[in-house]
Every structure is written in C-alpha cells, then in structure tokens.
Amino acid sequence: MVLVCGPKIATCGIVISLWAVIMLAMLGIFFKTHSAVLIEDVPLTEADIHGDKNPPNTVYGLFDQVSYNCFIAAGVYVVVGAFSFCQIKLNKRKEYLVH
C-alpha cells in the first residue's frame, strides 16, 4: 500500500469514519423501522400519496430505500476508516524505519 496522507489526517479520517458509521447505521435502523419522526427526510411527493391505491406501502418502500442508502453510505465509511487505519500503520512503520 502507498503512503498517501500523514498521521494527523489519517487519525482524523478514522474519527470521522467512526462517527459516520455509527450515525448512518442508527439512521438506517430508524428508517427501516419506519420512524414517523423521519418522514420529512423521505423523498415523498403528492403523487405518491394521491396517485396510489395503497399509499402506506409506497411510503414504507421509500423509507426502506432511504434505509438502504444509509447502510450503503455506512459501508463506504467503513472502507474509508480501514484505509485511514492502514495509513496510520504505514506512517508508524515509516517512523520506525527512519529512527
């Protein structure tokens, strides 16, 4: 693996990734359970409610789609965190070899 960033930026990447994974996983769970508090964050239009014979299923489908998007974003942040962790290890190895 190639050394791309220094130890401070890599540490910042791990901290941000850790927070993002926790936050997005919790949001994904809350969207998956169809939390009514998050209805404003669902891409719902008038046509979804009035143009459908069974609006609750449409709304639940939109909740599930947003939930999947949150879980995918959390997975991306896991990859970023792993990359940052590798960068920290490479920086420590470089520091060890220099001294």
Determine the strand fraction and express it as a percent band.
under 5%
Q: What would you report as the Rg, rounded to the nearest angstrom?
A: 20 Å
Average of the residue pLDDT scores: 91
User: Unreliable runs, pLDDT <50, ≥5 residues?
Assistant: none
The global form is rod-shaped
SS content category: mainly alpha
Q: Give the beta-strand count.
A: 0
Distance between the termini: 21 Å
| Domains (count) | 1
For the sheet with most strands, the description reads: none
Order of helices and strands: HHH
Q: Estimate percent helicity.
A: over 70%
Total count of helical runs of at least 4 residues? 3
Main traits of this protein?
mainly alpha, rod-shaped, 99 residues, single chain
Chain-wise SSE layout:
Blueprint: H1 7-32, H2 46-50, H3 55-98
Helix pairs in contact: 1-3
Structure description:
With 99 residues, the chain is mainly alpha-helical. It has one domain (7-98). The chain has three helices and no strands. The chain has helices at 7-32, 46-50, 55-98. α1 (7-32) packs antiparallel against α3. The radius of gyration is 20 Å and the shape is rod-shaped. The two termini are 21 Å apart.
Short description:
By secondary structure, the chain is an all-alpha fold. It has one domain (7-98). The chain has 3 helices and no strands.
